[in-house]
């Protein structure tokens, strides 16, 4: 971990150069644009690219996590009357229980070196992309408690390990025949609850560098909102199906690159 092994810390404002500041801004803006256009993939896109740009996994998770937390908070507040609070009360505990397990695994892989953790992230991203493409749950009035608990546990594990807790929650929500507002409100509310808890477990695992990175993510929140403007414009030009295909193709390329690059370096 850079912050523990060197006096130079890439995410301390006083040490960051203009190239680093611009790079973070570009990645977060493009990730926000993809999220606004396709409806998903902010963390799936931004976290791996920040890692490929030289940031530690926990730094990338904290930066993106804070941006996503602010977005989720605004969305949850605007749609608070539509959220399924009963499901949140009974299922969020499974996310929370698995977050420290994911953070511990991330720390274990980090100790094996930067190439190993990049390949782990690439492999998990590939699994997420394939599952999103292949798994099309038939909407129903209610999902069994066992399947719901499994989805939330996977969300917590992924959140702690890679910072991308969203895919299992999205698949779980898609399995319900809920109106769009209820689906969005419930997901916003869950992310608003679980992201700060994940930051706590990340900090306990990796130290104060996580909080420094989270502060930088918070500072970049206005930049992220700028990305919504071109994203919404692109979303109005293409069908949702076409947007999802483009997003999945881009994420697939990133995943394969993260898996292959350490082998050829």
Mean pLDDT: 86
* Structural domain count: 1
Q: What's the number of helices?
A: 12
Could you list the spans in which at least 5 consecutive residues all have pLDDT below 50?
Answer: 1-8
Describe the main β-sheet briefly. none
Shape: globular
Report the order of strands and helices. Answer: HHHHHHHHHHHH
User: Strand fraction band?
Assistant: under 5%
Structural class: mainly alpha
Distance between the termini: 20 Å
What percent of the residues sit in helical stretches (DSSP H or I)?
Answer: over 70%
How many strands? Answer: 0
User: Over all CA atoms, what is the radius of gyration?
Assistant: 18 Å
Describe the fold and architecture.
The chain is mainly α and 265 residues long. The protein has one domain. Helix content is 80%, strand content 0%. It has twelve helices and no strands. Helix 4 (57-78) crosses helix 10. Residues 1-8 have low confidence and may be disordered.
Keyword list:
globular, 265 residues, mainly alpha
Give me a quick take on this structure.
With 265 residues, this protein is mostly helical.
Helix/strand layout:
Elements: H1 2-5, H2 18-38, H3 42-52, H4 57-78, H5 85-110, H6 114-134, H7 145-162, H8 166-174, H9 180-206, H10 209-219, H11 221-237, H12 240-264
Helix pairs in contact: 2-3, 2-11, 3-4, 3-6, 3-12, 4-9, 4-10, 5-7, 5-9, 6-12, 7-8, 8-9, 9-10
């Amino acid at each position: 971990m850079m912050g523990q092994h060197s006096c130079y810390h890439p995410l301390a404002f006083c040490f960051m150069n203009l190239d680093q500041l611009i790079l973070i801004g570009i990645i977060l803006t493009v990730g926000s644009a993809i999220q606004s256009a396709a409806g998903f993939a902010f963390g799936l896109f931004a976290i791996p690219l920040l890692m490929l740009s030289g940031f530690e996994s926990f730094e990338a998770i904290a930066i993106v996590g804070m941006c996503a937390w602010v977005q989720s908070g605004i969305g949850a507040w605007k749609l608070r009357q539509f959220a399924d609070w009963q499901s949140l009360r009974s299922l969020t505990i499974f996310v929370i229980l698995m977050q420290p397990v994911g953070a511990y695994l991330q720390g274990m892989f980090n100790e094996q070196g930067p190439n190993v953790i990049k390949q782990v992230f690439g492999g998990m991203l590939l699994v997420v992309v394939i599952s999103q493409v292949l798994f099309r749950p038939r909407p129903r009035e209610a999902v069994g408690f066992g399947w719901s608990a499994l989805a939330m546990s996977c969300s917590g594990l992924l959140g702690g390990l890679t910072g991308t807790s969203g895919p299992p929650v999205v698949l779980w929500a898609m399995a319900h025949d809920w109106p769009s507002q209820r689906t969005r409100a419930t997901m916003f509310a869950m992310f608003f609850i679980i992201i700060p808890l994940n930051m706590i477990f990340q900090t306990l695992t990796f130290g104060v560098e996580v909080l420094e990175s989270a502060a930088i993510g918070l500072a970049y929140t206005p930049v992220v909102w700028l990305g919504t403007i071109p994203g919404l414009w692109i979303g109005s030009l293409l069908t949702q199906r076409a947007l999802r295909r483009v997003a999945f193709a881009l994420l697939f390329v990133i995943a394969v690159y993260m898996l292959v690059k350490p082998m050829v370096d």
